[in-house]
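Researcher: Let's do a round of design. I'm pasting the structure tokens now; please hold your answer until I've finished.
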């Protein structure tokens, strides 16, 4: 029993560290985008052909812009041919119709190292998730689902790494950035569930199960998920406007954004109303853990609204962009944790009612 308790504690600790690391990576990724460092390294997994990036342009060949542009085009041609074979002709054509496809960013030591540090954090997360899988091995005998979720997370990190190479080779093609963000949220949800499932008895306080509350929690999480992806698309539009304006006249950028921005902004009213209603339902449960998480959820929603208003009316301050994204991801994580806790607490109530 002592050994089992130690194994459980070790799995929880590495799982929590990994979840926090993924959120930190989302923050770093936001910093990469807000500083325009996404193409700080024009190749992947190396950076300018080296595992340690250069510190000065003199370390690069005179024609480095053309060299790395050609390498990207060759890689994209192979990707496009593969997509064509799978029947994704439109997506294949999109890769080459994107205006940034044939543009190569000039070397900037600050942007290069920001992107390089982003990649190092990604590698670190890969190591953490590998350890999570190793520490989940004992659950093969007790709860196979936990092990297979941990293993699935490890596979997903590999997919994320591959997708990261596509993001770079396509010069931040919008659809790849959105998918990259979506998979990051799925990864967080998988890890949170695995850790919570391993300690589900901690949440067993006999709540009366309500299909309405359960359904509302799912709707809330899915709505937030969709709002985050829509926000990612708005961020992509901001990047395009910034490129066209060459970084100048920042105060006019919002006026040049497309429909996604106005949908994202207007829908936030619906999102707020939904949060307030769900919070009201959760407070009625009088469950200590759920009440605390509900407080946290409402605080994050408030901050998200403040961040959004400031960005819309004060020329999109660069430092707020990564914070807006990170708090949105954390908000989704809190909602998913609420869903997990409610599930196990109410499942316990169901089992008790039938005498299990």
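Researcher: That's everything. Go ahead.
Model: Designed sequence:
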């Amino acid at each position: 029993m002592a050994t089992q308790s130690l194994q459980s504690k070790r799995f929880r600790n590495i799982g929590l560290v990994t979840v926090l690391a993924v959120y930190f990576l989302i923050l770093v990724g936001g910093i990469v985008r807000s500083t325009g460092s996404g193409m700080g390294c024009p190749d992947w997994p190396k950076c300018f052909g080296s595992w340690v990036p250069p510190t000065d342009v003199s370390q690069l060949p005179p024609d480095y812009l053309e060299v790395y542009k050609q390498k990207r085009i060759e890689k994209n041609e192979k990707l496009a041919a593969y997509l064509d074979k799978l029947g994704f002709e439109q997506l294949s054509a999109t890769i080459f119709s994107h205006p940034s496809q044939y543009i190569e960013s000039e070397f900037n030591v600050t942007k290069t190292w920001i992107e390089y540090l982003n990649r190092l954090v990604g590698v670190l997360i890969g190591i953490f998730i590998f350890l999570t899988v190793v520490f989940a091995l004992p659950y093969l005998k007790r709860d196979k689902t936990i092990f297979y979720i941990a293993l699935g997370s490890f596979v997903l990190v590999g997919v994320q790494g591959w997708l990261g190479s596509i993001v770079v080779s396509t010069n931040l093609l919008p659809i790849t950035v959105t998918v990259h963000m979506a998979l990051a949220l799925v990864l967080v949800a998988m890890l949170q569930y695995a850790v919570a499932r391993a300690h589900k008895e901690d949440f067993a306080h006999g709540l009366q199960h309500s299909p309405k509350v359960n359904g509302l929690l799912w709707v809330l999480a899915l709505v937030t998920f969709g709002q985050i992806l829509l926000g990612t698309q708005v961020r992509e539009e901001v990047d395009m406007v910034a490129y066209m304006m060459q970084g100048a006249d920042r105060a006019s950028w919002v006026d040049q954004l497309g429909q996604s921005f106005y949908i994202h902004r207007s829908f936030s009213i619906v999102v707020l109303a939904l949060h307030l209603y769900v919070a009201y339902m959760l407070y009625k449960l009088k469950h200590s853990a759920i009440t605390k998480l509900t407080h946290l959820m409402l605080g994050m929603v408030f901050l998200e609204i403040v961040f959004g208003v400031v960005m819309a009316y004060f020329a999109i301050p660069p430092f707020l962009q990564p914070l807006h994204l990170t708090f949105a991801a954390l908000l989704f994580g809190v909602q998913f944790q609420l869903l997990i806790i409610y599930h196990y607490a109410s499942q316990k109530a169901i089992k008790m009612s039938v005498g299990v």
